[in-house]
Each structure stands twice: as C-alpha cells, then as structure tokens.
Amino acid sequence: MNLWRALQTQPPRRFFYQQVATASTAPAASATTTDAILERFKVNPSQATQELVQAKKAGDGSALTPAFLARVLSMLFQARHTKEATAVLRLSLDESINLDYGKVIKGYNLDAMAPWVEANAASIPTTQHIAIIRKCLAMKKYSHAARFFRLVDTRHINADALSKDVMRLLTLVEACPDVARRRNVQDKIMTFLATGDGGPALVAAIHAVRPDATALSVRWTTNKLCRKKDDVASCLSQVNAIFAAALARKVRFDESMSITVAFSQTRQQGLDPAPLVHILLAMKGLGLVDAAEPSFMSATHACQRAGHWDLALVCYEEMWTAKQQSGMTTRLYNNGLFLCHQTRNTPVAKKLLDAMMADATIVPDDATARWIRHLLTHSASQLDVAAMTKYILHVQVAERKKAPTTQGAKGPTPKKSVVQKDEPLKIEGTTAKATDGDASSCSIM
After folding, report:
1. pLDDT class of 13 with cuts at 50, 70, 90
2. 165-172: long-range contacts (C-beta < 8 A, 24 or more apart)?
3. What is the per-residue pLDDT for 94?
4. Is residue 148 in some structural domain?
C-alpha cells in the first residue's frame, strides 16, 4: 500500500472532502496531503508512526523529506509522545534522511532527545553532533552542550565549526556545584569567544571555580588574542595581564606554546617584550614553567629585536642551563656567542666555548669562527686563545677534506669553508655585517 494512502486511512472529518488522488502518483506530497498526514499523527500518533516506519522499510517512503519529518517530530515532542518521536529519529538515521538534528532540537524537547542522542552517538555523524552542540550553546543550555560534547571529544572536529578548548572549559566548569556561579563563568567564556574582551577577568573567574582549568583558559585566551588582526597592541596588553594573573595564582604550565606565540607576536609587532619576559622569568623561578627551547628562545629573539641584549642573554642562559648542554646545536651556540659579544659577557662566553669544544656532535661553522674572533677583540686575556684557535683550525681542516672541490684552470681547488672578513654574515636567514661593537648590524633575527 502506498505510504501516503496508508497514513490517510480514515482521515479526520474536516479532511473528508479533500482531494488526495494525486498522492499515489506524485513523487512528493502536496501541502494538503502533508497536512492530512500530520493530522493523522495528532489523532493516533502511535499507529501513524508505526505505519510511517513500516512503509519506509517497504520502500514506499520516497515522499518523506527532512522538512516533513521535522514537522512530525515537532508535533510528537510537543505532545510528549517521546517513544514515537525517537522512533522517527531512528528512522531518519537508519534511512540516511538528511535531517538537521540541530534544527529539530528545541528547549522543550532537549531532555527527551538527550537519551536518544547518547544511545546512538556512534551512528550519528560528527557534523550532526556539532549542530546539536551549537544549538545548545545558542540556547545557553551549557549542561546539555557539555553532555553531548563528551560523546565526541576524541573525534576530529574542525576548529572553525566548534572549538574543543571552549567546550572543554565549559565541561570542566560544569563540575562547579554552585549553579549561579557556574552559569556566570560559562557566560563569560561565551562572551570572550564572541568579543575577545575580558581575558584576565575570565581567567580569574575560571580559577575561582575550577583551578585545574586555569592553564587551559590561559592557553585558549592568549592564542585567540594573538590571532586577532586589529588592535594588536591592546590584545597583547591583555596577554601580559593574563600571564600576570596566572603568575599571581601560581598556575603551572606543562606546555609552552601559548608563551611562544605571545613572544612571536610581540616581536613581529615591534612591541616591548620586557614586561612579559619578567613574568616568564618569575614563573621559571617558581617552577611554574620549564625553560623549554621554543618559549625561551622566542623570548630571546623578541629581546634581541628590541635591543634588550642583557635580558636576551638571561633568557638564553635559562634555556641553555635547562638543556644541560644536551640537544644543543651549532646554531644555538652561535646565538649565545653573539649575545656574549653584544653584552661583553666573557664568563658566559667561556662556559659556552668550553661546552662547545667538549661536545663532539658540534661542528663550528663560519659564524662560530667570526663570533669567536669578535670575542677575542675584547676578552682575549680571559679566554684560552690557543685552545680555541686549535679547535677552529682542526675542524676547518677536517671539513676541507670532506668538502667537494671545484675544477679550476690549474686543477682542483678546495672550496672555501671560512668567510672572508668583509663578507656579509648570514645567521638564521638574515644578512648582517659583523662589526665589532655595533649592535644594530649584528642581529640574528
């Protein structure tokens, strides 16, 4: 029997005289026919639902559309026919009917739909889960949003569609027993998501209700602020205040990406990194951060860009000490020698050179030789000139033996391995003239 005829059996009296002959031949139901079918759901929802499901399984459901099912579900949920509504939801899932669950969910049916969503989480596409969660957020139903997010937390989700950091913060705050306080913090999270304002106050509010979520809140707020393209100076001022708030509350950071990003933006915008550097060093002193290479070298480069040579060397030393001379590279050592030359810090230069010469994995290059030569111009009496000269020459000879040769008119000649005195010096992608005592011309940025 045709689906639409089955559903129109014994129609209500006011539809008795309506013409429905075209329903058996048309691929989609007319508005009048659809209204008649919906009326059937009002009269006997259980039987109408059963006939709908059976007809679809029999292959007679071509006239079903997402819009029609959405109207059926709205009617069933409003009449509190939850069993029948979930049967229709199951039908849409089994038959791959493109029904937008985010549009189906309303405030009045959220509690009724939640168990069905949880029971069928594995079968529901991620895009549908996202639509459901976003609808809950739009209605400020944070508890339901957190409940649904737990079902897909481990799935890949495009950050443009739904921020996992935001959802994890909302979910963590959900554990606060004080409903009013919890709701206030969750509202602050959503406000910051929309406007980017009030970052420090948000971090403080989250720490007050869920201290173990503070580090995540700092990471999320700083990364969001650092991605903004307008009013960058104000955003970075907020970033400094956020890290200051974290320091005041002694928040421990197990990752350094947010700090690295903040210093990178500070350097790119030509802003003074000193306030944030002092916060970073204070956090390191309290054991709240590790002197990881990404964050501390990012701070070092920002200080170099601003001409804070002494502060740059302090950051560099923290990184070098934390590495305990393992995992160092020629590039990192050259950076340190450059800073020692700029600051005339011979004791640190001696420590770096001793460690460098003792490390068989380090091969000095042209830049190493040049910075050593500049160090000797003002610190020769405190450095082992003979040992350094022997070290550089020994490595250069070994490198020449391995270097490819070029065929000249008089036969093969080895390629040069040391730059000449007046050649431009290239370090980290920037060309600079190495002139003694000229900080502006000796940059590794």
Report:
1. very low
2. 165/216, 165/219, 165/220, 166/190, 166/193, 166/220, 167/133, 168/213, 168/216, 169/206, 169/213, 169/216, 169/217, 169/220, 170/142, 170/145, 170/146, 171/146, 172/210, 172/212, 172/213, 172/216
3. 85
4. no
